[in-house]
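Q: My labmate handed me this sequence with no annotations at all. I'd like to see what the chain might look like in three dimensions before we decide whether it's worth expressing. Could you predict it?
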Amino acid sequence: MSIQISYNKAKEKSIICKSHERLMINHSLNMFLAPCVLLLFMIISIPSELNAQSHRFFYELTFKKDSSSSKYEKDYYILDISRNEQKFYNVELYKNDSIRKARNSDYIFSYPKYAIMLIQKKNDSFEDYFIETPQYYVQKSVDQQTWTIAADKKKIGNFTVQKATTNFGGRSWIAWFAPDLPFFYGPYKFHGLPGLILEIEDSRQNFIFSFKGNQNLKTETDTRSFLETLNQQKPVEVSEKQRQKLKLDYYSNPFKDFKDGMLVQNDQGEMIKVNTKELTEKQQKYLKQYNNPIEADRAVQYP
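A: Here is what I predict for the chain of 303 residues:
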């Protein structure tokens, strides 16, 4: 037996968190976060009340850049849940911004393996930020999921989780949510279940999000230097059609600012002369091979 539900924001206010579970952040995640000066402890408590300014959850993403490959890569993310909005972004962005603030230095650019920079507003509206050199952009959208909740249950750590399925972004997804954790959210744009989503993966296992730990914050994190703006550069709002055109324009001429014979430094630190035709062919091959976004129905149709 299964039931279908749609997200009802009003229900969230009536839920009281009763869990006092504690868990250890996964060792690999702790090693990744070690440079971040603001994370001072490893034992993280699940929130016992909803009065904190912000609740932070950590996720690991195991993913395939190339859908035809068996090779997986990993990256790590933060989900910040506050009273008025939710933010989901790469740990590396937060880490580098923390280092910048501690040193009072210039902006430190981040190069995550899979860049995700999202803000969820009210009424299922999202702001999706991305870079297309040299400009910073934001695309606004309304994204909902209709979930089918199954009777299947299992344990993730100390938590009993329940299975739910949905179709979103051209993929079928299987999620496991914890009713004892009264948050209607999860990684990426996934939301609307009666409990925090601890795991979610698509049916072909191209993308696997796994919950790794959490932290209660007394104040909301200021993300204005790396999310709402990028190094003081305000984003330009674009539609899906405009985003597709930006990607195709880059594909057509990825090295338009380079000229044959220019000296550049390669990965080995050597100075070499630019061959724009050769570089363009390599970059176009790369873009086609690794054209595997979470929302498959938004993949760019390269020629």
